[in-house]
Amino acid sequence: MTRCEEGQICLYDGHNLTGSNLQLQYGVDISNLGWAWNDRASSVWNRGKGAVCIYTDADYRGYHYTIMPGEKQELLFLFENAVSSLEYGGCGAP
């Protein structure tokens, strides 16, 4: 498992939190992960203080899924190699 600091959201390009990872500071919404990480993640670890919502399309669109604090999530089916944006506070947060 690649390192993920407390307070961060980490995306991994391998299953079971393996491979290269992208560490994002909790609390900053990302409307587009950019060319390097768009449609690349296969697992996610939320070490932030609140929920985070991942989306299959940029600008918080497409299929979405909430990952709770402390949760390690395998991305399967619609979400594997499909994450393009993420939003803090959970899906549909005000």
From TrEMBL:
Kindly give the InterPro entries that the UniProt entry links to this protein: G_crystallin-like
Q: Which Pfam families match?
A: Inhibitor_I36
Q: What is the protein name given in its UniProt record? A: Peptidase inhibitor family I36 protein
